[in-house]
Specification:
Elements (H helix, E strand, L loop, with lengths): L1 H12 L43 E2 L6 E2 L11 E2 L4 E2 L6 E2 L1 E6 L10 E2 L2 E6 L2 E6 L4 E7 L3 E8 L5 E15 L2 E7 L5 E8 L5 E6 L2 E4 L3 E13 L5 E9 L3 H11 L5 H16 L2 E4 L3 H13 L5 E2 L5 E4 L4 E4 L6 E2 L3 H4 L3 H8 L1 H17 L9 E2 L2 E2 L8 H10 L7 H14 L12 H9 L24 H21 L3 H10 L7 E2 L4 E2 L31 H4 L7 H8 L2 H13 L6 H7 L6 E2 L2 E2 L18 H15 L17 H9 L1 E2 L7 E4 L6 E7 L2 E8 L7 E7 L2 E2 L4 E3 L7 E8 L19
Parallel strand pairs: 33-37
Antiparallel strand pairs: 1-2, 3-7, 4-5, 6-12, 8-9, 9-10, 10-11, 11-18, 12-13, 12-17, 13-14, 14-18, 15-16, 15-17, 19-32, 20-23, 21-22, 24-25, 26-27, 28-29, 30-31, 31-36, 32-33, 34-35, 34-37
Helix pairs in contact: 4-18, 6-7, 7-8, 8-9, 9-11, 11-12, 14-15
Length: about 750
């Protein structure tokens, strides 16, 4: 990807309107859509309750990302123009505000009424109607370009804002930095195509001309232009290293004041990227949902290597990347489930670089711990668990071995064994962790008990069941790595403790049930609403119905605990058919993340994503086929409310990509995939090096969602799963679809599960 980015930069510098890949230069036939034409960044911009998506403009996995800054999609004011979003969502740096007219009561950031907004992944345009200013923007990887057309002959100004930092102007340039947190800075270097008449500092609504530098909170510089300059071009570079590097990034990528050229190059990059998966059949809306979801999976992680160097917030230093791009900004609790497994298939080189970035972060940290939520500002340690170990083992067991597994194991093991398991906290292990290691479960408090452990987050609480189940899975992943490294004692220890979920299973109810430190179940107990907001005392964002299935690594044992396949299926059915139990106002006041409901099932939160596929393990794969299609139709649509909950930068979108193709990685770390119900009649997935995995679904349609028969690589397949090795070098999965379930297909061979102890 590094070479591709450099080539694109050279193309832009020469002003060439061609793709970096010669194969894509001719484009689509007249009137035909290319993949990027299906992408609708507005899908999900209006939330059902929580914020699902932003209309992000960026190149795949690029350092530079922007989206219009407003209160939400329905907000009728733009808060200036964006220059960079520094995290997946919610945080931005700098701001640009065009201003025309007399200089009265200027603000560091201007709020605009707007109209005629158009957003694609590679371009943003908008008309600031009250101000009579037309704006056009296009991004490259570490730089961007604006064309700002003023609508009348009055004097014009550009207001540059840094929310907390410094700016200075010299000639036609503006440069400076902004603090993102107490230690991390983002730098900017910007040029305009004409030099301003004068420059000044904005203070208390007035401009003090003759001042060419400012600092502090909401510091703003004003570049003033005469009234005959109707259109101003602005191009800029961004860096996390320094201003000089920001300038280099701009010079490498954009040497023209031509938004069309930059946008066309970006469009070509997106088409090359999205063409890694080609789909046929399905409706136009289904293709829009598919390619928009695929675009969302490229929003994170981001490559922050700059000419072979990167800034690491872990130690606050600039490092040599040694030829391997450095990636960050990843909420692993969300993305380990499907986003990373998707990259293993279509972006293996990126995935390897991301894993190597994890290892670097760990070794640059004081403790040597593998990160959990790495961001530009460092590891923020959110949610629960240490699931980078799942990302690492999933890649390795599927053949991506181009990293040091021993180093990855040591960092993962130290994080899991030395850091506290308490959610949302980065601290050394506490007395609760010592209890977990001795007794095999995280102890819970009774509703009237006060917290005694200082490591526990006052709002996030202990999340005792979520921690116990998540750590059981992490232990299983550690066991697999230990086995691969020949560490027999470690393997036996972690495999044994990967069964810790058994310690909190209540055989009388069939649920995972919190226990106190004396080993007693918390009673009485409500699996729907116990645990306060987000059920955080015991679970995490979701209630007991969702965590009932949180044993991804050993579904066979979960079936056994519940009393066999028939009871297991009945329990799944019961979840989808049990009402909320309260009116929606009361339900969502307690469980605001638990949206996208089908009974007690929540389509809107990541721990639910694998659940519809669990029927495959209990001999009724037709129910997985029916349920997947139903959920896709109910909750994922080509409209503003087309995402049921927090999308989290690819976490949920990858579920849609996999499910529309017809298969899903239920257990990251197991080289297997569960078969669902493909939406498209033909899918071709480019695995690289000329290898293609194709899924042919004869007769597939909205009605024909049931598998009648199957072949894999020309051989009859009578099981609802396949191995990664079956497709690693390319392959063909052929499915014959019909409108009524074939209840005899795929019932005899459930997907494999964990080793027995």
């Amino acid at each position: 990807m590094k070479l591709v980015r450099k080539a694109c930069g050279l193309a832009l510098a020469a002003g060439l309107l061609i793709a970096c890949n010669p194969a894509s230069r001719q484009g689509a036939e007249p009137g035909m859509k290319e993949p990027v034409d299906y992408v609708n960044p507005y899908i999900g911009n209006i939330s059902h309750l929580l914020v699902p998506t932003y209309p992000t403009v960026h190149l795949p996995n690029s350092l530079l990302r922007v989206y219009p800054e407003r209160s939400d999609y329905t907000g009728d004011r733009l808060h200036g123009l964006p220059l960079i979003v520094t995290s997946h969502r919610g945080s931005s740096a700098f701001n640009l505000s065009p201003y025309q007219g007399t200089e009265t009561a200027m603000k560091p950031v201007v709020d605009y009424s707007y109209d005629l907004e158009k957003i694609t992944p590679y371009r943003y345009s908008v008309y600031l109607d009250d101000a009579d200013v037309s704006v056009d923007f296009a991004p490259s990887y570490q730089s961007g370009i604006y064309s700002i057309a003023f609508g009348n002959d009055e004097p014009a100004s550009l207001i540059f804002n840094t929310r907390n930092g410094e700016l200075k102007s010299e000639g036609n340039t503006v440069s400076g930095f902004q603090y993102i947190d107490r230690k991390t800075k983002v730098y900017i270097y910007a040029e305009t195509n004409v030099a301003p008449d004068k420059v000044g500092a904005l203070k208390d609504g007035k401009v003090e001309y003759g001042v060419d530098n400012v600092s502090g909170r909401d510091a703003a510089l004003v570049l003033a232009y005469p009234g005959d300059k109707h259109t101003i071009g602005l191009r800029y570079g961004i860096s996390f290293i320094d201003v000089a590097q920001a300038k280099k990034n701009l010079e490498r990528e954009i040497a023209v004041y031509d938004v069309d050229a930059v946008a066309k190059a970006g469009r070509n990059v997106w088409n090359q990227t999205l063409n890694k998966i080609k789909v046929e059949g399905g409706t136009e809306d289904e293709k829009a949902i598919f390619y928009t979801s695929l675009y969302r999976t490229y929003e994170r992680m981001i490559d922050i290597s700059e000419d072979g160097r990167y800034y690491s917030a872990t130690d606050g230093k600039v490092h040599d990347d040694k030829g391997v791009p450095f990636y960050t900004d990843d909420w692993i609790w969300d993305t380990y489930r499907a986003t990373h497994p998707l990259r293993v298939l279509i972006e293996p080189e990126k995935e390897l670089a991301m894993i190597q970035s994890y290892i670097r972060m760990a070794e640059e940290s004081e403790e040597g711990w593998m990160p959990t939520f790495p961001e530009i500002t460092g590891d923020s340690h959110r949610m629960n668990g240490n699931h980078a170990v799942a990302v690492i083992w999933d890649a390795y067991c599927k053949g991506l071995t181009g990293f040091d597994l021993e180093r990855a194991y040591n960092a993962s093991k130290s994080a899991i064994m030395e850091e506290t398991l308490a959610p949302w906290v980065r601290a050394k292990a506490s007395e609760l962790d010592a209890f977990y290691k001795e007794h095999g479960y995280f102890p819970a408090l009774h509703p009237d008990e006060k917290e005694t452990c200082s490591s526990v987050h006052p709002f996030e609480n202990r999340q005792a069941i979520a921690v116990t189940l998540g750590n059981s899975y992490d232990y299983w992943c550690l066991a697999q790595i230990a086995k691969a490294l020949g560490k027999t004692d470690d393997y036996n220890y972690f495999l044994t403790h990967s069964y810790n979920y058994r310690n909190v299973f209540n055989p009388e109810t069939g649920f995972f049930h919190p226990k106190d430190a004396k080993g007693n179940f918390i009673m009485p107990f409500d699996y729907e609403f116990a645990g306060g907001q987000g059920a955080r005392a015991y679970y995490g964002e979701n209630n007991g119905w969702i965590y009932r299935w949180d044993v991804q690594h050993n579904v066979a044992d979960l079936i056994s605990l519940m009393g066999g396949p028939e009871k297991f299926v009945n329990n799944l059915d019961e979840m989808f058919n049990t009402p909320l139990g309260k009116n929606k106002f009361e339900f969502y006041r307690v469980l605001p993340d638990h949206t996208g409901n089908v009974g007690q099932f929540s389509m809107a939160n990541e721990p639910s994503l694998h659940i519809p596929y669990l029927y495959n393990y209990a001999g009724e794969p037709w129910k997985t086929q029916k349920r997947i299609r139903t959920l896709l139709n109910q909750w994922f649509r080509n409209d503003l409310m087309g995402v049921p909950g927090d999308e989290d930068g690819g976490g949920m979108s990858a579920f849609v990509v996999f499910s529309q193709m017809g298969f899903y990685p239920v257990t990251p770390g197991s080289p297997t995939y569960n078969i669902g119900s493909p939406v498209f009649t033909d899918v071709k997935m480019d695995l690289g090096n000329g290898k293609v995995f194709e899924i042919k679904a004869l007769n597939s349609s909205d009605e024909n969602k049931y598998i009648q028969s199957a072949k894999l690589n020309g051989k009859v397949l009578d099981q609802p799963w396949f191995n990664h090795s079956d497709i690693a070098n390319g392959g063909v999965l052929e499915l014959v679809m019909g409108n009524k379930a074939n209840r005899n297909w795929g019932v005899t061979a459930p997907p494999p599960s964990a080793e027995k102890i």
